């Protein structure tokens, strides 16, 4: 059995977490600090938190022996996911009793027991907290009680919107899919259908006899309104026939439509911006060769041709990214096959731009087991990760590519010594078109598609990719794939 809980250390560390929140910190940094405090106090060898949404889960924070799982997705129909979301809220689970891929991966890392508790808000699961233990000794009830308490603390962070998203669809039991309300002359709600509760998150008890949680448009008009939680509603209103002055209001969530419109506008803006630079350079050098061929030296002509070729290659890579993003291209349904990961990485390096090849340091073991996946796509993955590392680090600093085996998985890492990545950005960096803050966008140009494509390609091969700050400065990008 694990050692008794170090309650003084747990309370002291938890005080630090609360002080972080009181000082304005939020989201992943606070969550990760909570796990770092809990792991030694609980006598665990690793801690992890899985965030759940409508389409499944993902490990968004992990420490110790569980750190390898950072970024790992859990499909909604995975047997392990089904098991974790059912049964008692807090319990001890023998890893060998799980039936999905996660069990094999945990066993391969010599983890035999987990104490798990769901983080719930009003009966809705936003995530699950895990304390992991090696050996055959079963954790005690004290560990279970503390993990349940910490999971409740995490749920409270979600409820307070402390920088963490809250997922969930909620039940749709109304005959109307749209929210429906009736308000009186004072703007107070007299009728609130179940769909309205689902769309706004306000129950009938919270809404009745109170003002609407959004502005009321004039009768017969339509208004799009952004809610405090970031969602968009499309609202219409009209006079209700009959005695009295009543107004009927209908509304629905148009967040996805707004996001599609935003993505379309951003796609056009980013594409035009990113295409302009190489096209301008190519045209400039081509015009120079055409107009001044006779007056240019042979060296000048070769240099102009070299620049045109380099910029054309950049243009081709950018077009590939844009087309892949728009067409959702990737390995798709092609069956996974075994391939030599070390040899594939060495071959992919040959096709990298010369300035990246010069900086690359390959540290690959000769006895690396074969990976199971789609070998041709590895070149795209390595190109995007090394390009990203090169962009955010000094031109003369090395970029290391290392690889290792970890239980049922084989992994490779691309590490740089650049500006690093903030903990709260490690997940957002994989969003399409996301490039960090405006200052980053000005200093580090790019379309914001590389990491988005990498994650989709890797996850289509039943693997996952994650980012983390590198000790001593810089960033580590890690790709994990199933091994043969």
Helix content: 25-40%
Strand arrangement across the biggest beta sheet: 3-2-1-6-5-4
**Number of structurally distinct domains:** 4
Task: Assign the CATH class of the largest domain.
Answer: Alpha Beta
Main sheet record = 6 strands, antiparallel
What would the keywords be for this entry?
Beta-Lactamase; Helix Hairpins; about 475 residues; alpha+beta; single chain; six-stranded antiparallel sheet; about 40% helix; five-stranded antiparallel sheet
Summary, kept brief:
39% of the residues lie in helices and 23% in strands. The protein has 484 residues and is α+β, with helices and mostly antiparallel strands.
Your description of this structure?
- The structure is a single chain.
- The chain is of the alpha+beta class and about 475 residues long.
- It has helices at about 5-20, 30-40, 80-85, 100-110, 140-160, 195-200, 205, 255-290, 300-325, 340-350, 355-360, 380-390, 440-445, 450-460; strands spanning about 45-55, 55-65, 75, 90-95, 115-120, 125-135, 180-185, 190, 220-225, 230-240, 245-255, 335-340, 360-365, 370-375, 400-405, 410-415, 465-470, 475-480.
- The strands form 4 sheets. It has a 6-stranded antiparallel sheet. Strands 8-7-11-10-9 form a 5-stranded antiparallel sheet. Strands 13-15-16-18-17 form a 5-stranded mixed sheet.
- A hairpin with a 7-residue loop joins strand 10 (about 230-240) and strand 11 (about 245-255).
- The model is unreliable at about 165-175 and about 435-440 (pLDDT under 50).
């Amino acid at each position: 059995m694990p050692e008794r809980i170090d309650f003084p250390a747990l309370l002291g560390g938890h005080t630090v977490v609360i002080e972080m929140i009181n000082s304005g910190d939020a989201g992943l940094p606070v969550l990760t600090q909570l796990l770092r405090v809990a792991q030694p106090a609980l006598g665990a060898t690793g801690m992890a938190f899985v965030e759940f949404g409508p389409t499944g889960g993902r490990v968004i924070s992990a420490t110790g022996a569980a750190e390898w799982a950072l970024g790992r997705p859990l499909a909604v129909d995975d047997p392990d996911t089904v098991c974790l979301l059912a049964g008692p809220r807090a319990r001890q689970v023998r890893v060998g009793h799980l039936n999905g891929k996660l069990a094999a991966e945990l066993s391969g890392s010599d983890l035999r027991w987990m104490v798990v508790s769901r983080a719930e808000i009003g009966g809705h699961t936003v995530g699950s907290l895990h304390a992991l233990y090696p050996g055959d000794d079963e954790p005690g009830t004290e560990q279970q009680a503390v993990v349940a308490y910490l999971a409740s603390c995490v749920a409270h962070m979600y409820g307070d919107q402390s920088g963490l998203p809250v997922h969930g669809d909620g039940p749709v039991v109304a005959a109307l899919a749209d929210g429906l309300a009736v308000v009186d002359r004072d703007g107070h709600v007299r009728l609130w259908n179940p769909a309205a509760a689902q769309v706004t998150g306000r129950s009938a008890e919270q809404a009745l006899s109170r003002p609407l949680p959004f502005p009321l448009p004039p009768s017969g008009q339509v208004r799009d309104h952004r809610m405090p939680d970031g969602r968009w509603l499309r609202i219409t209103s009209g006079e209700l026939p009959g005695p009295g002055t009543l107004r009927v209001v209908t509304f629905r969530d148009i967040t996805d439509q707004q996001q599609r419109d935003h993505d379309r506008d951003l796609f056009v803006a980013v594409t035009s911006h990113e295409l302009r630079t190489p096209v301008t350079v190519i045209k400039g050098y081509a015009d120079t060769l055409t107009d001044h061929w006779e007056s240019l030296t042979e060296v000048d002509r070769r240099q102009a041709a070299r620049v045109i070729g380099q910029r054309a290659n950049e243009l081709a890579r950018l077009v590939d990214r844009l087309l892949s993003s728009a067409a959702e291209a990737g390995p798709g349904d092609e069956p996974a096959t075994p391939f030599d990961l070390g040899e594939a990485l060495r071959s992919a390096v040959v096709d990298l731009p010369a300035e990246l090849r010069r900086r690359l340091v390959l540290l690959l073991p000769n006895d690396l087991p074969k990976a199971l996946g789609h070998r041709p796509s590895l070149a795209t993955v390595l190109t995007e990760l090394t390009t990203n590392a090169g962009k955010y680090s000094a031109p003369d600093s090395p970029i290391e590519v290392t690889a290792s085996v970890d239980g049922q998985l084989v992994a490779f890492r691309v590490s740089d010594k650049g500006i690093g990545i903030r903990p709260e950005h490690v997940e957002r960096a994989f969003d399409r078109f996301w490039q960090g803050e405006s200052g980053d966008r000005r200093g580090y140009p790019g379309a914001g598609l590389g990491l988005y494509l990498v994650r989709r390609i890797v996850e289509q091969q039943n693997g996952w990719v994650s980012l983390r700050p590198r000790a001593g400065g810089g960033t580590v990008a890690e790709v994990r794939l199933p091994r043969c």
